[in-house]
Design a protein that fits this description.
This is ATP-dependent Clp protease adapter protein ClpS. Belongs to the ClpS family. Keywords: Hydrolase, Protease. It is a single chain. The protein has 101 residues and is of the alpha+beta class. The chain has one domain: Ribosomal protein L7/L12, C-terminal domain/Adaptor protein ClpS (Ribosomal Protein L30, Chain: A), CATH 3.30.1390. It is built from 3 helices and 3 strands, in the order βααβαβ. A 3-stranded antiparallel β-sheet has the order 2-1-3. The mean pLDDT is 93. The chain has helices at residues 34-45, 49-62, 72-87, and strands spanning 21-27, 64-71, 94-99. It binds phenylalanine amide.
């Protein structure tokens, strides 16, 4: 049995990849009422009023704030839904998305 050669199967590459994640970002503006921003954050991103107030204030003070992180389709849908909610009331409220590194 000295010549027996063990041929190993080439290792299969792991095929399950982590989905890329995207941040939804709230941008500050000078016109949208604070209460309205909080209401949108609660309804679209399912935050409590306390959480939503903190995020709103962070965006108000810093210019922008990360609201949440999702897969791309979900991030796009939420950002659009929240931006549309502002537009339907005539507010310039804006949410963007950004790839998380
Ligand atoms: N800056 C707005 C105001 O003073 C509130 C706001 C916060 C708007 C966060 C947009 C984002 N009414």
């Amino acid at each position: 049995m000295a010549d027996t050669e063990i041929v190993r199967k080439p290792k299969a590459k792991p095929r399950v990849e982590r989905p890329k994640l995207y941040k939804v970002i709230l941008l500050n503006d000078d016109f949208t009422p604070r209460d309205f921003v909080v209401t949108v954050l609660c309804s679209v991103f399912r935050m409590t009023e306390d959480e939503a107030s903190l995020v709103m204030l962070a965006a108000h003070r810093q210019g922008a704030c990360v609201v949440a992180v999702y897969t791309r389709e979900v991030a796009e849908m939420k950002a659009e839904e929240a931006t549309d909610a502002g537009r339907s009331w005539g507010y310039p409220l804006a949410f963007t998305i950004e790839r998380e590194d």
